[in-house]
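Notes from hallway chat w/ T.B., transcribed later so I don't forget. T.B. wanted the structure written out for a chain they're using in a teaching module, and asked if we could keep both sequence and structure tokens in one place. Agreed to drop them here.
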Amino acid sequence: MRRPILLFLLAGFVLPASAAAQPRATGTLRVVVQDPSGAVIPGAAVRLTGTDTVNASVLRTDLISDGQGVATARDLIPGHYTIEVSFPGFEARTIRDVRVKSGDNRREVALAIERVNQSVSVGRDPATAASDPNSERFGNVLSKDQIAALPDDPDEMEQVLRQMAGPGATIRVDGFRGGKLPPKSQIRSIRFASGMFAAENHGGGMTFVDISTQPGLGPMRGSMDFTFRDGALDARNAFQAQKGPEQTQQYTFNLSGTLLKERTSFSLSAGGASLYDSANVYAALPNGPRVAPIRRPSDRVNVNGRLDHAVTKTHTLRATFQQNDNDQHNLGVGSFDLEDRAFARTSRDSLFRLAESGPWGHTSFAESRLQLHWTSTDATPALDVPTIRVLDAFTSGGAQQAGGRDSTELEWAANIDWTKKKHAVRLGALVEGGTYRSDSRTNYLGTYTFSSLADYEAARPASYTQRLGDPLVRYAQWQAGLFVQDDWRASKNLTLSGGIRHELQTHLGDRWNLAPRAGFTWSPFKNGKTTIRGGGGIFYDWLDADTYEQTLRVDGTRQQDLIVLNPGYPDPLSGGFAEQVLPSSRYVLAPGLVMPSRALVLAGLTHQISQKLTFNLNFTHSTTSDRLRGRNINAPGPNGARPDPTLGNVTQVESTSRARGDSVNAGLNFNIPARRMFLFANYAWINQRNDADGPFSLPADSYNPRADWGPAFSVPHHIVSAMANTSLPKNFRVAASFSARSGTPYNMTTGRDDNQDTVFTDRPSGVRRNSAMTAGQWDAGARVSYTFGFGERSQPAGPAGGPQTIIMRVGPGPGGSGDLLGALGGGAAENKRLRIELYASAQNVLNTVNPTGYSGVMTSPFFGRPTAAGPARKLDVGMRVSF
């Protein structure tokens, strides 16, 4: 027994001395070079220069990225460095103030496609760089720390990103649209890009949220995430007398690394969640109010995988797979909808993506991508009984949501970039579409609509509707686009851009949808701190597959709508002399339906106030014609007669709506990388007006739809958002976010079918559409985390060639306090072999009451009042273990 004790004591004296005799610890920096899509770039030249006094002698010019896009610099003296990366066909990039610590360090560098003819060299002229139309100056890029501050739940994260981006934002993952967001652990960067008017984009003017996922490079690494939320820690919803049940148990496991050295790497994530929240019922019944939170359970399972492979020394292949299963119950309940309106839905979402990229010679670069997307949904109602609807008072009876939808969708795109002298040309093609099968059934047992509680108590419904027939439809829909664009370096500080795009779609008769685009990017001063840009063009929108499906199903043959005015109750056909049974009603596409087109003009300014602070300002004006709207072409005329008495309502989807929009966006970005401190703030003024809300929204008067011109529904005039993130001592980090928006317009109606068109969209005389306004909303979020670890990551070979042994003392040292967590954390938690992060995050941390659900129905007991509130304060706690 004495021998082990003696050995232990001897080790206590010898090992610290041995550690002191070790040469100074060095660091390894792995620079991952990627293209804009996230694919790695083999063969890139990387230059490394030390910028501190202790490492000023370090200059590495021999670094080349391998088949996995990684350039590795070993035996670096810890300190700050400047990284310069270049590759033919791409813009050279310089990143300053990169901190290298002892142990393993990693930095990802994304190169933009070269748009102008120039020798690929470091130290690019500031004015030349500032006039690059693809510069990151024209968008906000969230850092890893800012991404970590977003909600852990992918659905909640998507909601927050859309709020930050503003109305009409499009989210793309590795260049693809559609599908669920990947888990945060697989996200490399999130970029907000506004005013994208290049010909390669289908849409423009609004904001693109581009999410790039990261490859699994280097040694095998993994992490486990656990997030927990319980209603006991949350606040009560302001419109409920008692706190509703709520709990979330969410978990994720991640593993990534190299499979074949310098050839193949992978990244895998699997997770799930078992949760329930509350649907808040707030309704008025004849015997009094009904206010209750209803438990709404949900179970989710998701798998995400990515494989990167170097096909050749210059070409890479990336494959990703994603599957999400979701099982939800008690949907359809809340607000005016009572408990018996519940239905369950199961869904499966599977997605496969394949992308290949690489240079063709010294002047061309090609990228192609393919996406296959399978979805399947099925709904089952809790009760199969007719529905009773009292306008903005209560709705009871069955949900009448049954059946489902299966789809197989494809997206294929290819782009080729070619540079010649002062021109950089990009041309490409896009094909999207899919096949669909749907047997979704709605309103198959009928719905009674009452204008008021008094009418309900008098058994006097205003109408009865029922959808009859077989709901099964099968169809295909495809759309395609071709484009060519050219960025011409007119001078050292001025780039002119021009291009044209052509789009086609099945089920539409128009075949010539040419969309010209043009723009400029100008840096007027030699220091390159100011950039002015402008541009515009024509943009087209697709006919949505759901819209076509509805017209295909309710065509008067497969299915038709039965409508009875002044029906009896509970027997709709016992209304007596006042009853009016209409012939079958249907939906149709207008014969001359065309794609909606939008003319867009944009002007912007970006100015670098200091090395840490940047300001940007953008103005956008757009006018849209040929928007899709619904119109009842067989509505009763002024004399009460219908044009075709053999038909009921004929809702025609036609290209007759219009819209106009103006917006001003201003933003500030403050960044101190050395202290890991970030701040950005944005303000947007928005003025959008239109005369229809969508392809099936009917005007108050189908013979005068232009009278519906007014503010866009639910679009605020003012939006403010901000996010801050910084490091604190002892490996603590704190993040805060703030968002606010002004009130949003909503419509006011009489609650009665005054013109006998069976639609309750009639407004009071002299009242314009969407003339009522809600109250404004604001809330704040916060996240705090603490990180510590055990052990050290393996060190690279030292100058003498052999492994280094690092001895770490846990406990009080010279001047120490004996704080175990302080010793474990220190300043190098990132380099621990086992890294543990504890975090807590709060949404609506100040528990602000944000009223929603305003009623605009004059016969409702809630007229002009809110009937719900946004989520109250929610608190999540969690742990992330990385190894």
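Follow-up for T.B.: Helices lie at 2-21, 126-130, 144-148, 154-165, 453-457, 545-553, 820-825. Might be a good example for the class.
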